[in-house]
Specification:
Largest sheet: 5 strands, antiparallel
Strand content: 15-25%
Number of strands: 16
Helix content: 40-55%
Number of domains: 2
Length: about 475
Amino acid sequence: MSARATPAAADTERALYEVRRKIYPRAVTGWYARWRWALVWITQLVFYGLPWLTWGTRPAVLFDLEARRFFLFGLVLYPQDFIYLTALLVISALGLFLFTAVAGRLWCGYACPQTVYTEIFMWIERRIEGDRVARMRLDRAPASTAKIARKAAKHAAWFGIALWTGITFVGYFTPIDQLLAGIVTLTLGPWQSFWVLFYGFATWGNAGFMREQVCKYMCPYARFQSVMFDKDTMVITYDRERGEPRGSRSRKADPASLGLGSCVDCDVCVHVCPTGIDIRDGLQIECIGCAACIDGCDQVMDRMGYARGLIRYTTQNALDNKLDRRAIWRRVLRPRVLVYSAVLLAITIAVFTHLALRAPLKADVMRDSALGREVENGMIENSYRVQITNPSERTRRFRIVAGGIDTVFIVGDDEFDVEAAGVRMVPVSARIEPEHGTRGSNPIAFRVEAVDDASVAVEAHSTFFVPR
């Protein structure tokens, strides 16, 4: 380090090369902690529960990559429906932008899988090793039977949850009952085995060991979130004007007579922070917006008999201009938020409308040969292959009818059975009278309709070639 380096530069250089210091977050209760745990329960009930739901005789949610079919309750999607996945990603991104513009990193603090599993793993850690001070003492203590037993119990519980998480993840791609049967009988395929172990190991490592490192160094969201913030974004903020100068004092002391602010410098906000930052230093990219510091500070304010809100959700404009809560919420409906909301609403309506109105079956036509041929009685025949996709949940019989050219008709079989949620490629030959059609290519249409319901129909277009 240069002899002329400033203290700030020295601190920055030290931070860049400093070995990670383990963070021991303290347990905290409060309104925001209850919200975090509510989101933990909701997200995990959905994640762990969906693979077990059935829809008729099949799983309600299954991404069957081998058969290239994707089941979402009563909806059956195919690779050609990739546009819906694109739309879902766009909706998710716009939703993230909207929530961030309104109230900062809500996703990170309450619903991100990294946050959720870290919360679960820390809960297990506290139950087995104790709260913050007890864990610090245990880590500093020399190796002993009791220490090894506690560590082993903790990692066994972590590993059990991580492994079940890996099994559940793969259960979205392989029916969960078949997956468990394969595990019990040791007949699980290599890819299923790999992904169960990989996803389980990733959960164990990220939530058990890396924790805040994932948020600080691996996740890109913290790096670009600032472009979605403005002075009317609700963020977790320390009220410096009210809190400073900080200092310890007795509960009965009058802070004004001591020349002190409301902050008692207890460092509870630092002790409860899962990323180990001090919110009193201002907004930082390491802050995931979990609001644990708000709950911790409010508890201290209650004990001291001071008003809550020394650390709170507020905006930069509210602090600068002394705005009340009503004025803060009036500023929520600003142009950025309105644009995000309008675009998000429009895309969501468009996607669900398209899903509701999409054709109840699909058909694609491919020519078997670029040329037509002359057959008996001078008729002209062209051969095709028609791919029929039946997205319904039962086997159906479909009829193929040709049109677009006078006298055109199908030769041979024109009715075919397609299994439930299945795809079938069928050969079709079409003929016309020799005096109809012009030489060269002629447009032709194939109507595919359900035999039992003519309203379930779709048209596929191709060309009919008449030899010159």
